Structures
1.
Amino acid sequence: MTRKKPAIATTAIHGGEGIRYPGDPVAPPLVQSVNFVQEIGTEAGLMYNRYGNTPTLQRVQKRMALIEGAEAALVLASGMGATACAMLALLRPGDHLVASGHIYGGSKRLLEEEFTRFGIAVTLVDPFEPRVWRKALRRETRALFVETPVNPTCRVIDLRPISYLTKESGIALVVDSTFASPVNLRPIEHGADVVIHSGTKFLNGHHDAMCGVVAGTEPYIQEVLQKMVLWGQAPDPFAAWLLERGLKTLEVRVRRQNDNAMRIAAWCAGRKEISKVHYPGLTSHPDYEVARGMLDGYGGMLAIELEGGARAAERFLRRLKLFIHAASLGGVDSLVSEPRYTSHARLSAEERARAGVPDGFIRMSIGIEDADDLVADLEQALK
Ligand SMILES: *Cc1c(COP(=O)(O)O)cnc(C)c1O
C-alpha cells in the first residue's frame, strides 16, 4: 500500500520530527541559547543564532518547508525581513522586477524606495489588466512578484497564467501568500518558485510574535540564508518557538476563521447600512471563480463599506465591543481597521476612492470567537 502524504493538519504538528524515545519532551524544547560549544580543531559545526542553524530555528524551518511543499524554507525576523532577503537573493544591480501594484505598503516602499536605489528597476502593474505581465517583461527581468489575496480588497490573482509566463520566460515567480496561509493556498502547487509569509499573521496566529518565512528550492534558500546572515535578519529563538507553537493549531484556526468570515460576509451582505462586502467566498465577488478554483478556503479577511462613509465608520468602530480596533491580521482575536489610517494613509480621499478603498471602508480580520457573538457585536454597533 502506498501511503498518502500526510495532510497539512498533521504536517503542521509533526512534520520533520524524528523518532521519539522515552523521556523525550512532547512539547518542543525552546533552546534560547545563541552560542554553542564548538569542537576544537575544526570550523565544522559552528552554530550561532544569526546563521539560522540553531536547534529551535532548524526545527521550524523544516516544518515550514513541508507545510508549503517546498524543498527548503527559512524563518526570518519579520515578513519584511523575509521579503527583503528573498528579493536580494534574486536581484542584482541592472536587473528588472515586475511587481503587482496591489501589495503590502511596506513591500511597495521596499521595492520602490530601497531597491531602485541599488540600481534594480521595478515596474508596478495593475494585476487585473489583461496581458499586463507579458507587456511589462524586459530582457533584464529576473522575477515577478505578486500578493494574493490582496490587501484590503480581498481580490484574488490567478497564479496559473502568471506561472505559465514565468516558466516560459525562465524567471522566478515570487508569491506573498500571507493573506491565504498555507491552509487555503500553497502557491508552489500553482507554479510559484518562491513563497513568502509574514509569520506574524496567520502562521503565529496569536498576536504575540514577529517573524517571516521564505520557501523555495534548496539552492535558492541557501542564497536567502546568505542574505539573512549578513543583513542580520535571523529571528530570536523564542519567536521561532512561538511560530512552531502557533503552527500546531494552524489548520483548526484557519478553518474556523474561514467559516466565521463566510458567515459574517453573508450576514453583512444582507444589511442596508452596508453598501458593499468584499469577500471572495461570495458569488458577487469579482474573483469568486478564481478563488473557487485556486483556494481551499476563502480566508479570514473581509472588508465592508458603510453607507454613511467616514462618519459612520468612526461611530461603528467606537461601538464595537468584541472586535478590537488594531492593525495587523490573522490572529485568534477579531480585529478591525480603516485603511485610510493605515495602509492608505498617504493617499488623498479621492486617490483612495480610485484605489477601491473609499472612506467608510473597514477591513476585518476574523478570529476564532463564536460566529453568533461576532455577528451580535456587529449588529449592535450598526444600530
Ligand atoms: C504584515 C504583512 C507583511 C509584513 O510582515 P511583518 O511581519 O509585519 O514584517 C508583508 N506582507 C503582507 C501581505 C502582510 O500582511
Note: The mean pLDDT is 96.
2.
Amino acid sequence: MGCYKILLVTIVSFLFLVQNTKGWGDDGHVIVCKIAQARLSDAAAKAVKKLLPESANNDLSSKCSWADHVRFIYPWSSALHFANTPDVCSYKTTRDCKDQKTGIKERCIVAAVTNYTNQLLDFGSNTKSKYNLTQALYFLSHFLGDIHQPLHCGFLSDKGGNSITVHWFTRKQNLHHIWDASILDTEVQRFHDSDMDEFIDALQQNITKVWSKEVEEWESCISNDIACPSIYASESIEDACEWAYKDAPEGSTLKDDYFLSRFPIVNLRLAQGGVRLAAILNRIFDNDTIVNVDVI
Ligand SMILES: *[C@@H]1O[C@H](CO)[C@@H](O)[C@H](O)[C@H]1NC(C)=O
Ligand SMILES: *[C@@H]1O[C@H](CO)[C@@H](O)[C@H](O)[C@H]1NC(C)=O
Ligand SMILES: *[C@@H]1O[C@H](CO)[C@@H](O)[C@H](O)[C@H]1NC(C)=O
Ligand SMILES: *[C@@H]1O[C@H](CO)[C@@H](O)[C@H](O)[C@H]1NC(C)=O
C-alpha cells in the first residue's frame, strides 16, 4: 500500500514538474539560444562549453529558461526580466530602469544585460571571479531573449500586456502571453507542421538570405560597446506600440488579421535576439578586440 502511494505521489509530482518547467514560453528562448550557439566563434564556443554543466551536453538552449525557473528562489531577479515605460512609446534608462515595487534604480532588464556581460568578462582571467559565471551565462542568454519580446518593454499600467485580456482566436488569453507564445505556436502549427526544428531551420535560412544585409547592423553597437541593451529595449517598446497594443484592446478577439501581420515581427525579434546574443558572447570571449561595456 505504502509503496503504491509513494509511487503515485512520485508520478503525479513528476507530471506536475514536467508541465511546469516545459511551458510554451520556453520555445522562444530555445530558438534564440539555438540560433546564437550556432554562430559562436571557436573561442566563445569553447568558453560556453566550459561554463555549461556536463548534463547540458553542450546545449546552451537547454538552460535558457533557467532564469524563469529561479524567479521564486531568487525573488530579487524578478524585476530583471523587463523594463516598462510610463505608458509612452520610447524607453529611457534614467526613467524606466528601476524596480517598480521598491523604486530601486538599475533593477531592470537593461541593467541586467550589462551586469551579466560584465561578470562574464572575468572568464579566463587569472583571479577567480566572485560571481558564478555559469549563472551569469544563463541569465544573459535568457535576458537577451526577453529584451527582444516587445511586451517585455511595454506599458507599466498594464504590466506589459499581462492585464489585458483578449481572445486568441477562440481562447481567452492575456496579451503578454500572446507575444510570449501564442503567435509563435500558431505559426509553427500552421506553417511548419508543428515541427520546431523545421521552424528554426527556416529562421536561420532567413538570417543568411533575407536579412543578410541587416545582420551586421544588428550585431554592432555604437562606440564598440560589448552589448547595447538600451537600443534593444527601445526597439521593443516601439514594436509594442506599433504592433502589440495596436488593435488589441481589452476584450477584443484577435484572429488572422492580427496574426498574419504580427508573426513576421516575432520572427524578426527572435532572429535579432539570437544574432545579438552570439555577437555579445563572441565579443566577451574573444580577447583580441578591445571593447568597452555600455555604461548606464
Ligand atoms: C548583478 O548580478 C548579481 C549576481 O547575480 C546580482 O546579485 C545583482 O542583483 C545583479 N544586478 C543587476 C543590476 O542585475
Ligand atoms: C553555479 O551555478 C550553477 C547553476 O545554478 C550551479 O549548478 C553551481 O553549483 C554553481 N557553482 C558554484 C561554485 O556555486
Ligand atoms: C522567411 O522569409 C520568407 C520570405 O520573406 C517569409 O515568407 C517567411 O515567413 C520567413 N520565415 C521565417 C521563419 O522567418
Ligand atoms: C585570451 O588570450 C590568451 C592569450 O592569447 C589565451 O591564452 C586565452 O585563452 C584567451 N582567452 C579567451 C577567453 O579567449
Note: DSSP finds twelve helices and three strands in the chain.
